Amino acid sequence: MPWLSILMAVPVLGAVGVALLPKGSDKLAKQVALLVSLVVLGLTVAMAVQFSPNGNRFQFEEKYSWIPSFGVHYGVAVDGIALVLIALSAILVPIVILASWHDAEGAVAAPVRDAKGATETADVKTEVVPPKRSAKTYFALLLVLEAMMIGVFAATDIFLFYVFFEAMLIPMYFMIGSYGGVQRSYAAVKFLLYSLFGGLLMLVAVIALYVVAEKNTFMFPELIGAIQDPTTQKWLFAGFFIAFAIKAPLWPFHTWLPDAAAQAPAGAAVLLVGVLDKVGTYGMLRFCLELFPEASKFFTPLVIVLSVVGIIYGAIVAIGQTDMKRLIAYTSISHFGFIALGVFAMTQNAQSGATLYMVNHGFSTGALFLVAGFLIYRRGSAQIADYGGVQSVAPLLAGAFLIAGLSGLSLPGLAPFVSEFMVLIGTYERYAVPAIIGATGVILAAIYILWMYKRTMNGPTAESVKGFTDLNGREKWVVAPLIALIVAFGFYPKPLLDVINPAVDKTLTNAQVTDKQPVSTVAEKKGAGQ
Amino acid sequence: MNGGTIEAPTIEYALLAPMLLVFGAAIVGVLVEAFAPRYLRKSIHVPLTLLALLGGFLLTILQAVRDGVPTTPAAMGAVAVDGPALFIWAIILILAFVSTLLINDDEQFVAQAAAVPGSTDEEEAVRSGYAQTEVYPLLLFSVGGMLLFPAANDLLVMFVALEVLSLPLYLLCGLARRRRLLSQEASVKYFLLGSFSSAFFLYGAALLYGYAGSLDLKAISAALGTVAGQDTLLFVGMAMLGVGLLFKIGAAPFQAWKPDVYQGAPTAVTALMASTVLVAAFGAVLRVFWVALGNLDWDWRPVMWGVAILTMIVGAILAITQTDIKRMLAYSSIAHAGFLLTGVIATGAFEQNREALSAILFYLAAYGFTTVGAFAVVTMVRDAGGEAGHLSRWAGLGKRAPVLAGIFAFFLLAFAGIPLTSGFFGKYAVFSAAVAGDALPLVVVGVVTSAIAAFFYVRVIVLMFFSEPAADGPTVAMPTIGTSAVVALAAAATVVLGVFPEPVLNLADQAASALFIR
Q1: What is the CA radius of gyration of chain A?
Q2: Residue B425 lies in a domain
Q3: Helix axes of B481-499 and B422-436: crossing angle, nearest 10 degrees
Q4: pLDDT for the residue numbered B177
């Protein structure tokens, strides 16, 4: 069965169906979108259980000639790394759809604030609430985005990867630009131009790769080892890496992210930070390391420095934020520093940890953004100072926020802890000093999360918060699966690691790196424990 | 007479049939103007023009399918109907056909060109429902010239073609129904600058004749190796010829006419110019520089590098400051001419030339359709004073007319070269040819300017979709069947070439397979 093609076709057809619904059927559009995304999730699960971690590297392969003149194939397949990221996307989309139920309705959020007198309501309204837009379009865009997210991780043809890499900007651009906050068009344009610029540099590298390799194909497996000349490798690496570093985003290419994430509706922000940005770190792991092993080693010190700076910088700047969504965006910059650090530390532990982190970060940041989104929906403001004592009026909401936050600071027992720990251990094997400096990011994380929690949830109940309702049924359904996953993978990450580890092995082999250090690894300990 | 006989030239009528058909129809059109009653003219002209263009297209296809590509020039070596020429003919004829559907719209053209703007004569003309139906034969003459221009194998024939294609366009530019002074100004500017460039071309041709002793492209190419001591003639001639040709494609620093003319001309004519003229002119540029001066590429390539870089930068950067949609599209067209020039420069061995040529041909096809579609949308967005050209008037169009704005956004994304649009593959093809042709720095400039260009395309999308509509914003005119057909066709072409480009890539490849015949 062409699983991956079906996974992409279903959301695309769903999007067309949603878009073709008659005017005024917004409710039906949401239901159809949710149903479609659940079908995709079901299919993904059905595919994932058939995946054999120790079988061929790439499974569910499909390969058809697409543009013979350019040597381009429609080539899709998954290895363990791609599989977990596709699963992440498939899990997040239905949750995001459910969470975005009222996002397109704009002014609906107003009633809670009416108690505070007309003038302030008006102020608040202009500050955050976007005008009413077509819900149909929003959910159609979301489904198109889902298809492209699956495509970008599944592509084994570099040209096809590039096509998805660029094309997926467009639905996200419209989601931010049409449905975001007050400065949405600025944020959307900044997001698009940054990404396009990186993408175009990558295009040059893609073309040059094809020309230099002289293999007459873009199929990734055939291009491994095709470029031998170190200088060429370095230039091509730079082309790919800058694109991925902007996408991820790595310090100092990060400035678009806080704007985009803060202005995007909460659901879109989850997909932006949770999945789209992973394409950057995924690209580093998959393409940079394997296609240009020499250059990767050459640039490793630089990347590690950037990552560590990103970890610390993101965390410190996050502490100073007054806007919840911006704060969460900066924490992500810190976390992406960890992921990039893990990718370039080039040890089994660090890379497995980085891959696991990509998944866990999707869940934990997703939960944080969504719960913050519920808060903002109630109050109409993203300013931390506008809240206080929410715990006493909406305990469930506060509790969900706390768990999501604690997972963000990598509390042991919650999923991100495992991955962060693996990254730090794995990095320490090779680069002790960066690992030690990076570890201080964990402490800073406690500051920004707990301080935000304290200011919003504890203390005297703010006047404007008094009318808050607790999580309703829909919102519980949004939060519950995420928290369940965070806790489950916190205690038992083995199913994910079993899938990821063999894939990372292959990556390291192709990147011509071996774990030389005799330090016993977490993976080995796990093996010993069984 | 001294008793000698003048041999009648041999003409391959079958080969030249598409061109002859178009010219013939143009002459019939003139006769219609002279003899048919006013109320009948338009209903004769429209089918006549469309049929002539369609017929020309079918004859071109027939030629390519039945007889294959000829290997020797026709008409005593004056016209080379080779693969690239046939491909370019087919594109020009389709695009002209599509543009004719746009021209078939009374709102576009002045009632009586001779009436002074704002005079009582003008009011009188409008009241009596006059229409300047000469538009159709003029268009046909111009298209005939465009067919001859890229196929001319002789500098003199090429000059004649240049004039035949340009003169009707100068006139057509001045026929806008609204803002007539702007339109007439555009016409005069285009005429003056165009005449200058023609003079340059002619002078260059004369100097090259002085150098090579022939105007035949093949003979000039042959002379490059044999004639010595005449280099001044050669280089000055080449430079002047280059000025004339680069003017037509709107390459910097000869681009100044483009924004003014595109803005002032009736939008349907702009659509025709922006698509077909660019295609024809690139055909001629390629023929002159690759056939006649191909062995001299070490000499002209550095200059062309400069021109290409300047063109891309000027086009992309000046477009940012534009506030009129047609001017913006004009600068965008300049930037695209720059991207195409990177392909012209990517010469090398036979295989390399072939790849570059097929890339350029594909780019021209892709760009032509998107351009016609974009201008067709521009004709539909109107307010009380005619077309709403100022960008601020486009704010919130996505709310008023979501489908139309969506299609226009799609065209803009195609111009920006986003994957899954035809523009992406065009750009990809040209850039990859340039990389293979050792022009990597040029490609880097190309992608950087593409990123800059993306900014102003995206800005229009922001205006249309993310801004609130102005209270007295423009309305979207109910499109005529012709206009909607144009938009639909252009959108379909942009999608299909963006998802399944292979058939057209293949065609372009076959057309380029033997390069130009000499």
Answers
A1: 22
A2: yes
A3: 50
A4: 83
A188 contacts B431? CB cut-off 8 A: no
* Cβ–Cβ pairs < 8 A, chains A and B: 85
Q: How many CB atoms lie within 10 A of CB B303?
A: 13
* CB of B302 closer than 8 Å to CB of B225: no
Contacts with B320 from chain A: Cβ below 8 Å: none
Could you write out the DSSP letters of every residue in B247-295?
HHHT-TTS-THHHHHHHHS-HHHHHHIIIIIHHHHHHHHHIIIIIISGG
DSSP codes joined into one string, B231-254: HHHHHHHHHHHHHHHHHHHT-TTS
Per-residue confidence (pLDDT) for residue A114, from 0 to 100:
39
H-helix or E-strand spanning residue A64: strand A59-67
Q: Which amino acid is at B153?
A: N
Q: Is residue B6 part of a domain?
A: no
Taking CA atoms, what residue in A is nearest to B419? A163
pLDDT for the residue A115: 39
The rounded distance, in Å, linking the Cα atoms of B133 and A118 is: 62
Q: Cβ of B454 and A163 within 8 Å?
A: no
State whether A193 and B458 contact (CB < 8 Å): yes
Task: Tokens for A400, please give them.
Answer: 């969900």
pLDDT at position A113 is 40
Q: In A, which residues are within 8 Å of B466 by CB distance?
A: 177-178, 184-185, 188
Q: Cβ of B66: how many Cβ atoms within 10 Å?
A: 8
pLDDT at A112 > cutoff 70: no
- Is pLDDT above 60 for A213? yes
- Residue B269, both tokens: 């004519």
Whether B2 maps to a domain, the answer reads no
Weakest mean pLDDT among A295-304, A366-375, B38-47, B383-392: B383-392
How many Å apart are CA A332 and CA A270, to the nearest integer?
Answer: 11
Q: What is the ipTM of this complex?
A: 0.88
Which residue of chain B has the CA closest to A160?
B419
Average pLDDT, chain A: 86
Instruction: Name the residue among B319, B444, B125 with its Cα closest to residue A202.
Output: B444
Integer angstrom CA distances of residue A228 from A225, A241, A293, B87: 7, 18, 9, 40
Instruction: Locate B230 and state its tokens.
Output: 């005449």
DSSP character for A108? G
**DSSP track, B358-379:** HHHHHHHHHHHHHHHHHHHHHH
Do A91 and A277 touch, CB atoms closer than 8 A?
no
Is residue B3 included in any domain, yes or no?
no
Pull the structure tokens for residue B240.
Answer: 């002047």
Interface test with chain A among B362, B435, B459, by most A beta carbons within 10 Å: B435
pLDDT at residue B304 tops 70: yes
For residue A169, the chain B residues in CB contact (below 8 A) are 418
Model pLDDT for residues A474-512, shown as the tens digit of each residue? 888 989 999 999 999 999 999 899 999 888 888 888 887
Q: How far apart are CA B292 and CA B156, in angstroms?
A: 13
CA distance B276 to B88: 9
Question: Which of A57-71, A510-524, B91-105 is least confident?
Answer: A510-524
| Distance of alpha carbon B498 from alpha carbon A105, whole angstroms | 34
Residue range(s) defining the domain that contains residue B430: 13-511
pLDDT digits (tens, 9 = 90+) for A238-291: 999 999 999 888 988 898 999 898 888 888 999 999 999 999 999 999 999 999
Provide the CA B453 distance to its chain's centre, in angstroms. 20
Distance from the Cα of A60 to chain B's closest Cα (Å) equals: 23
The tally of domains found in chain B comes to: 1
Element (H, E) at B309: helix B297-320
Task: Give per-residue pLDDT as tens, A21-66.
Answer: 887 788 888 899 999 999 999 999 999 999 988 888 888 989 999 9
